[in-house]
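Hey, can you fold this?
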Amino acid sequence: MLKLDLNLLWTVVDVLILYVLLRKFLFKPIQNVLDQRQKTIEADIAAAQTSKTEAAAALTTAQDKLRNVDNEAAARREAYEKQAEVEKQQLLAEYKPVAGKRGSIGIPLCLNMYVAAGKAAVEIERQNKLREADAQATALARSMCEKLLKHNLTAQDDDQLLDDLLQKAGAGNGN
């Protein structure tokens, strides 16, 4: 049978005192540390989400610029082709009287050279615009990565990110 004596009472009092002391000096500080850590984690997650949103917006802007560069290059190419055709017609009109006297073999060859030179100029302009767009996209990607990593990238990291960006850009354009 259970016997109630003074030792049992002191044991219960000791356990209650131990519980109060542990709660005040151990559980509350640990809970405070856990709460602070939870707040820090939530703040970091919110900052990462904000950075991700900004990066997505910047990537969309860069892709729009790249599309605009392609459209601009196509428009310039068309304009150069039209200008070359107009110049061809002017040269034909100018040299037609001469062609009748000398023969017409040299004139088409000359006109074809002008057309080829115009097409070459258009292609060079297109390549320059693509290089500019690529440089802008690379700078944008590096900037985004530096913001996310919060430190400067090494040359090897920079090369790897550039390769990844070029692969993604190639996959996005169907190349």
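Oh, and this one too while you're at it.
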Amino acid sequence: MAQESKPPESGSPTDAPAETAPRDQASAATPSSVSADAEKDAQVEAAKARVAAAKLEAQKTAAPGAPKPPVKKKDEGPKPVDASNHPLFKRLKDKCGYAVIEATEFLGQLSIRVERERIVEVCETLKSDTEKPFNYLSDLTCVHYPDNRDAPFEVVYNLYSISKNERVRLKVATASADGVESVTSVWPSADWPEREVYDLFGVVFRNHPDLRRILLPPDWEGHPLRKDYPLEFVENRWTENHLPEFTEVQKEQLEQRRAYGLEILSMPQEREVRELFKSGKEVMPKDK
């Protein structure tokens, strides 16, 4: 009984767990990771405080800035100027009188407006001019101005002097029904350009040796380069006679594809597209 009540000696093995337990609890209560996070947070807060103080100091000491200069307007581009004193216009005026109306110059390019009924006379005069013979018709085209109801079309002749290396532009205002005299008697090379203007603009050239369409079919209706001509494909008598018929479903598909901007239907291959629809094939592959 006396041996059971005797306390254990200090060096016995049973004292080891009791002494090491408080040490483990202390080390778990203060880990190194907690102290590192706290130190980082303190550094971040200190940096924020320094930035805020620097901004506040800059606002107090900064002087008001100079006002911004006003935005400079863009310089207007060059404009046509009167060329009544141009030597060629004066010489042409002396020879043809009221056949020449006015002259303008733009970036060194001379343009002369001519009376519609006397265009052949003016062209012959320029071609046979001894000082500057304009013996080459480099281009013949047309411009449509729908707002000019009396003469909405302007036929343009670009002439070139090979020996003097100079150019002049003639302009003739006319209506489609009135037309203009053909200059094939002066320059035979005007044959096809005049046919092209007739085909795409509808301007008639009187006394032309073979005035007929050159790009579009002979029975085509309308003139595509007029500004009042529709931009998209239209149904007309020619399409009814020469292209397969569209069903209502195919017409709806065509409109939907155009609405999505599929450019294949904005190109001239309308007949191929119709054949694709007719055979049941897909025009464009489906998105997968």
